[in-house]
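FW: tagging you since you asked about this chain on Friday. Here's the raw sequence from the shared folder, copied in full. Didn't touch anything.
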Amino acid sequence: MGHREDLLAAARRCLEKRGYARTTARDLVADSGTNLASIGYHFGSKEALLNQALGQSFQEWAERVRSLALAVEPTADRRAMLAASWDAMITSFTEYRGLAVAFTEALAQAERQPELRAQLAGIYEQSRAAVAAMITEIIGVPTGPARALATFQIVVCDGLLVQWLLDPDATPSGAELTDAFMLALGQDQGS
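HL: got it, structure written out here
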């Protein structure tokens, strides 16, 4: 690997261990075996390096959630599939906890970093498109409604992530979320 790749790999490790807000340029240099000038040369700034590593990590995380959700046996029971997709999200939180924390920290920084804000918005758009395609693939929903469902799934994922980060034991299961959703729609939980 060259310095650029070494820095990206180090940024990923630092994001997992130290988070977005607490990773310094010196941490990145020490972890990558490069030098401070390499950060500026390849990325322009420490923030740009962290942002790129975060974006790549988020895409990997989204693909992991997708693979977990697609591993669920497709059935005519959409309620079971919905519960399984939410359980897949929760499973991914455990696997990607360090990155989840770093992502949450980055959201707070995005208010003052227009590039980061634009990048995170782009990541959300890519995720929305990927989830919509998955919904269309699995249950045959047309593109427009699939996009709305994808947005809903992402909203649930983000809220669930925040709750899980604060208290994993109090986080509802996919089945509990599905029952609550059905109750909100005025439908019996078991029907």
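FW: Residues 61 and 96 are 7 Å apart (CA to CA).
HL: agreed, and The chain has a mean pLDDT of 89.
FW: great, closing this out.
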